[in-house]
């Protein structure tokens, strides 16, 4: 960023746009480098949805033949396993009503519409729109893996020729062979970590740039109304501080680059608001042409809004207020306002929804409307509460303070000044209205989400950048009389107060599942290389519900893995007569393993023909018997409860124990195994995940 930039309302639009494009390109490069480093640093798991909402379904489409509905022939690389959660497989069980011969055409149309809506309400709750970037990336990986798997038969003959004429060709052949070897060796990393790097550039970077664009527009608008030439240094720029807040934010660094649907929703919202700058923060009536047509950028913004609604229907809590604000800000007739409401907002938003439904139709093989299924499951049935509940005001007193972090005082100060209307109503009236627009978008989104019992920090991620825009303006007001040295001290303080959280959460806390999968992939690959016929393995995760990723983190070329995990779907959670596998294991790990796996029970219970004997009461459940897997991944505390079964009955051996999260901190006493001692004063004790092998 330049040390200073001269901004004046007299500057021509052409020159401003030219300089802005150059600055945007520089910012894109710098922010991309930062976010890629941010993605590389993340080695932990935040929430299972980052894998099960994106990586696993994308992997199923690209590398598995179990869920494909495409009429095209299977790709040679479509030969691996697939794991989808209930959100993708939810379907209506009861048959649709049959049409009777005496029904009129109109009645048949009505019944067909009712049937379609009913199927959509009881259908899948996840859209494939949010996984398209990951899916396209996996398609590229699939082609690269296929190329790398082909052995060049003539490479050895070329290498054996020593004449100078073939030396250049031998170098090329060596390079190609080495590249193929590296690709095959790093296939697991490319599949598991590649989408995170992709999201860093395609989701996090556009979000960061949109923050700078929005704040720059508001800043230029304020100076235009002041009618004064102003020289802005970086520490005096609203856009600079808004960008600094989002770049240094611990929560953005921890969550935004992850493969969440919430991250995609955040990008759609911020890019949309940036495209709607004149309509939201200026007079929308002056941005039309003579035929009263709306700008193409505004239309694209609401198409993104429709796609965002497909990803998460709760994004309407931001997009509907945006549409209403645009209409109210217009100084036009009622007829023109209706034209804006329907012609700009509704039509283009509906177009985005239709595009999203077409994507889901192509993948699912039938006309699914996932946002209706999501609405039915969470709002109508209220089953989202099965996965945790919080008080209604939790976002106010816990959610916003936690994710805002050190920016919270600046954000609250700006909000209080806006609500009290302490800003001058003469020179800054338009600027005040613009900041109030941002505040009302944040408020409506937070309030509507507060009515849902199931709450998570990441659900507020889409409006966090808007909070940083307001915090950036408050920071500029605070630093009005400060020197560059004082401003740099504040910048350093922001880093020191944010980065320790990011480093701990991104590199230490809950890193066990990823470390365990990396170890499993390594030992399975080594075993397959030693014996080509030994290329089939099974991995069972005896842990919490979807607490570890599956096939997307165990991809190995020509190594086939069967993954099993404990069920915790709403079918069992909402039915008191059914006990979920995850709950049954948590309640009594020994009994669950003893009654679930074949050849685990004592005595005659291990024989299928003796299953009805009185001594076999433990397996009188509707849980099918499972074969003993090649590997078991289990929390260390649970492993201690079933270690006798694992070692004596299964002949399993513990092959690894990886750190998961900090269990406790105590004063240093004496050296213990796998305890991190800090300056010989404090001992840090960790929870562990154990890996057992039966092969």
Write the layout of secondary structure elements.
Elements: E1 4-7, H1 13-41, H2 49-63, H3 86-89, H4 105-121, H5 132-149, H6 155-160, H7 167-185, H8 187-226, E2 230-233, H9 238-248, H10 250-256, H11 261-275, H12 277-281, H13 296-311, H14 316-329, H15 334-364, H16 370-380, H17 394-404, H18 408-420, H19 429-450, H20 464-478, H21 484-507, H22 512-530, E3 536-542, E4 560-565, H23 570-573, H24 581-587, H25 589-596, E5 631-635, H26 636-649, E6 653-667, E7 676-678, E8 682-693
Helix pairs in contact: 1-8, 2-5, 5-7, 5-8, 8-9, 8-11, 8-19, 8-20, 9-20, 10-21, 11-13, 13-15, 14-15, 14-19, 18-20, 19-20, 24-25, 25-26
State the gist of this model:
By secondary structure, this protein is α/β, with parallel strands linked by helices. The protein has helices at residues 13-41, 49-63, 86-89, 105-121, 132-149, 155-160, 167-185, 187-226, 238-248, 250-256, 261-275, 277-281, 296-311, 316-329, 334-364, 370-380, 394-404, 408-420, 429-450, 464-478, 484-507, 512-530, 570-573, 581-587, 589-596, 636-649; strands at residues 4-7, 230-233, 536-542, 560-565, 631-635, 653-667, 676-678, 682-693.
């Amino acid at each position: 960023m330049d040390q200073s930039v001269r901004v004046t309302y007299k500057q021509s639009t052409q020159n401003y746009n030219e300089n802005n494009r150059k600055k945007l390109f520089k910012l894109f490069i710098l922010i991309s480098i930062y976010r890629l480093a941010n993605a590389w640093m993340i080695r932990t798991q935040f929430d299972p949805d980052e894998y099960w909402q994106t990586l696993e379904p994308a992997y199923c489409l690209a590398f598995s033949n179990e869920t494909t509905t495409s009429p095209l022939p299977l790709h040679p690389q479509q030969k691996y396993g697939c794991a989808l959660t209930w959100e993708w497989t939810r379907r209506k069980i009861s048959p649709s009503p049959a049409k009777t011969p005496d029904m009129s055409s109109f009645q048949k149309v009505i019944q067909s519409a009712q049937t379609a809506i009913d199927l959509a309400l009881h259908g899948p709750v996840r859209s494939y729109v949010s996984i398209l970037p990951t899916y396209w990336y996996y398609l590229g990986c699939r082609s690269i893996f296929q190329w790398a798997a082909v052995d060049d038969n003539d490479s050895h003959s070329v290498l054996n020729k020593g004449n100078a004429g073939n030396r250049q060709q031998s170098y090329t052949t060596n390079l190609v062979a080495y590249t193929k070897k590296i690709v095959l060796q790093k296939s697991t990393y490319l599949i598991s970590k590649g989408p995170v790097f992709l999201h860093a550039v395609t989701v996090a970077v556009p979000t960061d740039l949109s923050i700078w664009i929005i704040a720059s527009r508001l800043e230029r608008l304020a100076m235009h109304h002041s009618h004064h030439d102003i020289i802005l240094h970086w520490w005096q720029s609203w856009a600079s501080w808004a960008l600094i807040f989002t770049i240094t934010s611990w929560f953005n660094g921890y969550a935004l680059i992850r493969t969440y649907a919430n991250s995609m929703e955040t990008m759609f919202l911020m890019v949309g608001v940036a495209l709607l700058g004149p309509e939201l923060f200026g007079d929308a009536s002056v941005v039309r042409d003579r035929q009263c047509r709306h700008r193409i950028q505004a239309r694209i913004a609401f198409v993104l809004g429709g796609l965002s609604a497909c990803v998460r229907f709760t994004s309407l809590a931001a997009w509907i207020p945006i549409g209403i604000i645009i209409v109210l800000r217009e100084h036009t007739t009622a007829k023109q306002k209706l034209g804006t409401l329907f012609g700009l907002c509704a039509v283009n938003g509906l177009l985005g929804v239709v595009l999203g439904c077409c994507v889901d139709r192509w993948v699912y093989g039938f006309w699914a409307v996932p946002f209706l299924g999501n609405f039915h499951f969470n709002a109508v049935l209220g089953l989202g509460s099965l996965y945790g509940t919080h008080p209604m005001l939790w976002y106010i007193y816990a959610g916003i303070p936690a994710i805002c972090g050190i920016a919270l005082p600046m954000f609250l100060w700006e909000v209080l000044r806006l609500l009290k209307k302490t800003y001058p109503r003469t020179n800054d009236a338009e600027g005040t209205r613009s900041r109030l627009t941002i505040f009302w978008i944040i408020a409506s989104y937070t309030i509507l989400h507060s009515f849902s019992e199931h709450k998570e920090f990441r659900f507020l991620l889409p409006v966090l950048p808007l909070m940083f825009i307001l915090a950036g303006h408050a920071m500029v007001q605070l630093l009005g009389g400060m020197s560059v040295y004082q401003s740099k001290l504040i910048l350093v303080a922001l880093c020191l107060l944010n980065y320790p959280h990011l480093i701990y959460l991104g590199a230490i806390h809950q890193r066990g599942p990823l470390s365990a999968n990396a170890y499993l992939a390594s030992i399975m690959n080594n075993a397959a290389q030693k014996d080509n016929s030994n290329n089939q393995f099974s991995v069972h995760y005896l842990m919490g519900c979807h607490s570890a990723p599956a096939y997307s983190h165990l991809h190995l070329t020509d190594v086939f893995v069967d993954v099993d995990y404990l069920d915790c779907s709403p079918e069992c959670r909402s039915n008191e007569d059914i006990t979920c596998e995850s709950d049954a294991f948590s309640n009594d790990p020994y009994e669950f393993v003893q009654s679930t796996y074949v050849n685990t029970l004592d005595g005659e219970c291990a024989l299928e023909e003796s299953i009805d004997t009185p001594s076999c009461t433990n397996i009188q459940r509707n849980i099918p018997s499972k074969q003993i897997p090649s590997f078991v991944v289990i929390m260390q505390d649970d492993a201690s409860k079933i270690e006798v079964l694992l070692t004596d009955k299964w002949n399993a051996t513990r092959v690894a124990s990886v750190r998961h999260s900090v269990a406790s901190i105590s004063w240093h006493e004496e050296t213990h195994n796998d305890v991190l001692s800090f300056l010989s004063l404090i001992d840090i004790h960790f929870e562990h995940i154990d890996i057992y092998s039966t092969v």
